[in-house]
Amino acid sequence: MRWSQQSALDPAVTGTAATGTVAAGIDAPPAELFGVTGLVRSVQTPEFAGVTFHEVLAKSALNKVPAASSMPFTWTINPYRGCSHACVYCFARNTHRYLDLDPGQDFDRQVIVKVNTPEVLAAEVAKPKWSRELVALGTNTDPYQRAEGRYSLMPGIITALAEHGTPMSVLTKGTLLRRDLPLLARAKEDVDVEISMSIAVYDDALQQTIEPGTPTTTARLATVRSAANLGFKVTVFLMPVMPKLTDSMDHLDTALRAIREAGASRVVYGALHLRPGAREWFFAWLEHEHPELLPRYRRMYAKSSYASKEYRAWLSRRINPLIDAYDLRGATDDDYPMTKRGDRTRLGAASSTAAQAASLTPPPQEALF
Ligand code: SF4
């Protein structure tokens, strides 16, 4: 039995009993379980075994980031809530609680799909008052998760933004991105388009257990190569770096060499960040897969969602020379000309985060999906 199956049977781990009740079958809207308006239907298909898509009609597509946020962008679009990529450490897990769903297996298997996102967005960006500031995609959940193969929302989103002079950044783990690279390249002729690929684990066995729904590292690196061949300066997010799992010199060196060889222009890294929701799920995974590490992690994340200052300083000393050695710093003036929030109309979100990473203090994972 896989650890996640075992955990799903344990209410102490999953938190709620929503799983199983929600998966009510084709066209059976479980409206009573959601604080969601606009629910059209819930769908299960053989191609996505174990996953239920809840199709909703969204009232808006653009989300404004609160002014108090430290995020270096003002607007985001998240066409999906929940993510079948199922990364154990995913910081967005807790957002499923707002839907009366649990942040563990429900997050992986109960995916909300805002099916009208392209149409709603097209109307929003056509308004004369639209500011044409950069829009960040992939800041909460992955826009190229497997559901995108079924719903194809991204082509309409990219087209709407480009047609209305709106720069965009895309951050993903999904190799489905390749489908849209020609479209993104065309968009780049009119607006700034920033592409970032998240690749944290360069050990196939570990990758398959800690990111069980994601494409392989090799496939993601190949996607980086495809984007680079089309002229994109691709950023790779080497995060989260996980203590004693992915922070050895061997692993970091293997990672940075592979990223360099794939044609990426720069790397952003950060130590594991464990918010409530993700923390319980990660600890359950750790207990099953690496019980010897559990006491160490409990100590490190006892008082904070962030890795300790000492660990982050240690990681900085270890990784920064490697980033320089592989020429992946990417902090040229051309890459990061503006860092203030008000200057973001032509600056990719990932670029800003990369600019932070170029400093000696590595950023936490919070800017990521
Ligand atoms: S970390 Fe990203 S890709 Fe992984 S489950 Fe979360 S949203 Fe999906």
Automatic annotation (TrEMBL):
SUPFAM superfamilies: Radical SAM enzymes (SSF102114). Residues 337-369 are annotated as: Disordered. InterPro entries: Elp3/MiaA/NifB-like_rSAM, MJ0683-like, rSAM, rSAM_sf. Keywords: Iron, Iron-sulfur, Metal-binding. The keyword Signal does not apply. It comes from the Bacteria. Residues 337-346 have a biased composition (Basic and acidic residues). Residues 349-360 have a biased composition (Low complexity). GO terms for molecular function: iron-sulfur cluster binding; lyase activity; metal ion binding. The keyword Manganese does not apply. Residues 69-310 form the Radical SAM core domain. This is DNA repair photolyase. It comes from Brevibacterium sandarakinum.
